[in-house]
Amino acid sequence: MKLLIFLVCLSTTIAVAQTKKPAAKASPKPAAAPAKLPGQLIYEQNCLTCHQANGSGVPNLNPPLRGTDWVNGDKTRLINVILKGLQGQEVEGDAYDNAMPAHDFLTDDQIADVLTYVRSNFGNKASAITAEEVKSARAAK
Q1: Residue 89: what pLDDT?
Q2: Residue 33 and residue 66: Cα distance in Å, rounded?
Q3: d(CA 138, CA 75)
Q4: pTM of the full predicted structure?
Q5: Where are the domains of the chain?
Q6: Measured between alpha carbons, how far is 82 from 105 in angstroms, rounded to an integer?
Q7: DSSP codes joined into one string, 100-140
């Protein structure tokens, strides 16, 4: 009788072991998001609300940052928009009602980083702006 009970227990143990699913493989960790550039972080903190994540701006309120001469053209003029703000100017022939406040609280490096980011994103392919160029424009202010 003990042998019979032993064999029943053994066969039950074997059956359970055979029906157990293999341990689930650990799912691969999602790829880490690429590190953001300093200029992108500054853009997200100071510019995104008005100029949008894709640089499109808001019609009749805030101008786009894509493909405009204001962004891709004269560096000093663009630097001065950040340092002094902008109001009442037409951008690419369109009027925008919101005033751009001065962001002169940003450091020269931060302004250079964010403007370089803008000039090389949103379809723009303009050259970088250096902290030295910002410093020079700030001194002429």
Answers
A1: 83
A2: 24
A3: 13
A4: 0.75
A5: 36-140
A6: 10
A7: B---TTS-HHHHHHHHHHHHTSTT--PPP--HHHHHHHHHH
CATH of domain 36-140: 1.10.760.10
Around 89, how many Cα atoms within 13 Å sit in the side-chain half-sphere? 13
The maximal CA–CA distance of the chain, rounded, in angstroms, is: 103
Structure tokens at 32: 């880490």
Classified as helix, coil or strand, 93 is coil
Closest CA to 39 of 101, 86, 106, 104: 106
10 Å Cβ neighbour count for 68?
18
Does the pLDDT of residue 16 top 80, yes or no? no
**pLDDT tens sequence across 77-113:** 999 999 999 998 888 899 999 999 999 999 999 999 9
Q: Across the chain, what does the average pLDDT equal?
A: 85
Which residues lie closer than 8 Å to 52 by C-beta, 6 or more apart? 58, 62
pLDDT of residue 134: 98
